[in-house]
Amino acid sequence: MLNYVWMSLLFLGIATALTTDIINTAGNKYRNNEPIPVQINFEDTFIRDEAKSYNVIIKIKQEDYQNFYKEKINEDILLNAKLTVNPAEDKNSAILIVNDGSPEILKDIASASGEDDDITAVLSSINITDNGASGEIIFESASFLKLKDVTNSAIDYAKTAVEIALGLIGIMALWLGVMKVAEEAGLIKIIANWLKPITKKLFPDVPSDHPAMGSMIMNISANMLGLGNAATPFGLKAMEELDKLNPNKGTATNSMVTFLAINTAGMTLIPATAIAVRAAAGSTEPAIIIGTSLFGAACATITGITAAKIAEKFPVIKNDFSGWLKKNLKGFYFLLALILLALIFSLTGAGKIFSQLFDWVTPETFRDIINIVSIAAIPFLIFSFIGYGALKKVKVYEQFVEGAKEGFNIAVRIIPYLVGMLMAIGIFRAGGAMEWLILILRPFTDLIGMPAEALPMALMRPLSGSGSLGIMAEIISVHGPDSFIGILVSTFFGSTETTFYVLAVYFGAVNIRNTRHALPVGLLADAAGLLGALFIVKLLFG
To answer: Both 441 and 468 in a single domain?
Structure first.
């Protein structure tokens, strides 16, 4: 499944980019080699017969621009430029500086040469009058810009993947060293025994005293507290231990898929990043999304676990569908109960009644409590694990170093998988396939009441953490952090995880090539989290 998705991301990104470039070239979107009238304001005195460079301001009138590019703008365009005049020639070169307020077409032309804000141009027929100067300008040619973006994005994302992996080395060494001490002291086994009734149901194939169980528990706990720098090393260690129980190397086990379903659901008690973005944008209640994010993440977690447990029963034995159905009837009853519960909440307004029962727990109080726990968690874990090891006469330093050695190997091992996945995502984004996907899905999102402005955030969240963060910040800056859309996209961010990144990193750590049903389960969890977030935000703020 992951192979087909990876190839689809590459194909759609490149095909969309090529199609867009062909259309733009055929229609001459950028008006290559065609002059547009401009006015020129010299900051210094113009000397007609002397070769010289001048600092100037190039002005393109609103009407001239609209007639030229067939694109509406609100006002005249002013661009700072360096104009080099050569009296021996009628054409003179100029370098124009494109700013943030410039039209998108000019920004695209500026990017054609590899620079973000420079346009090389040629000015002809400079006429000096008492009111200033005028002339015609021909911008540098621009073609196949989307394919250039695809190339640059592929290279940039490959670099990013390596930087992420290398950045994990120190964190991996720290936490795997601490885990090794706790494991040798027997502390992980004690924690696993406490949670045995829950973990035995979730991971029946993993012995309760196996090191994998302790690593999974620590990973899930760190995720819930928002300790991403601790959660990833614990998760990678858990996958390594689960692979030791794997009878079919290279193929994901049921326990691996269930574990990743919990991770891709992204259950976090306090979505600190989204709250920080809201606060920076001037929200009067930045922590108001804590409750809505928990609801969305709970929907994602329940759906992910349920889907994983049902999917692991496949394939259906030939000519025995009725037997398979009877065997899995409880799972279908559970799904039916969830659907009915959602309908009851929706039709009766029970969600509002439920929320009123907990009015005494304000978002600020809950945030403060979780903040304190999150801040104290890492020092507490290090102190308690190392301290317990010392009490049990474990050679803590030697064991720490032994565990830390594994960090480097795991971090390096995931580089190829991370490069492949992030590169594909970068090509998909840069090629413009995301915009086409939005157009295709818009009728469905309109049907369920999701604002079109929030759709890019919903689609980007499973693909890229940084990409979804940027989209969220942009939407909040346009619509406001406390608007319905602002609260909705913030809740989206706190309700789901970057599924493709998680799968690439965790499966890459143990060389899993056959991911079985892990991707569909993760995407189902994402969809449930997004729909749950939409439901609760519409219920409370719609």
So the answer is: yes
Closest CA to 301 of 467, 494, 152: 494
Same domain, yes or no: 156 and 131: no
The C-alpha angle with vertex 338 and arms to 334 and 343, in degrees rounded to 5, equals 145
Residues 452, 445 contacting (CB under 8 angstroms):
yes
3-state secondary structure of 310: helix
Cβ–Cβ under 8 Å, residues 223 and 267:
yes
DSSP letters, 441-489, are HHHHHHHHT--GGGHHHHHHTTT-HHHHHHHHHHHHHHH-TTSHHHHHH
> What residues contact 27, with CB distance under 8 A and at least 6 apart?
none
Q: Which residues pair with 52 in a beta bridge?
A: 85
pLDDT of 316 strictly over 50: no
Q: 233 preceded by cis ω (within 30°)? A: no
Which residue in the block uniquely carries the two structure tokens 């080099």? 84
Rounded Cα distance, 331 and 372, in Å:
39
Rounded-to-integer distance, Cα 182 and Cα 239, Å? 18
Residue type, 107: K
287's tokens: 């922590």
Contact (CB, 8 A) for 134 and 37: yes
Lowest mean pLDDT among 188-197, 259-268, 443-452: 188-197
Show the domain range for 96. Answer: 31-142
Classify burial at 193, counting beta carbons within 10 Å of its beta carbon; exposed 0-12, middle 13-18, buried 19 or more: middle
Same domain, 325 and 435: yes
Residues 6+ apart with CB under 8 A from 333: none
461 and 339, same domain (yes or no): yes
| Mean pLDDT value across residues 520-542 | 88
pLDDT at 252: 92
What total of structural domains would you count in the chain? 2
Specify whether 160 is located in the same domain as 129.
Answer: no
Give φ, ψ of 61 to 5 degrees.
Answer: -65, 145
Pair 328, 434 in one domain: yes
Which of 5-9, 20-24, 97-101, 206-210 is least confident?
A: 97-101
Taking the CA atoms of 463, 468, 469 and 470 in sequence, report the sign of the dihedral they define.
Answer: positive
- In this structure, the dihedral spanned by the alpha carbons of residues 94, 98, 103 and 105, taken in order and rounded to 10 degrees, is 60
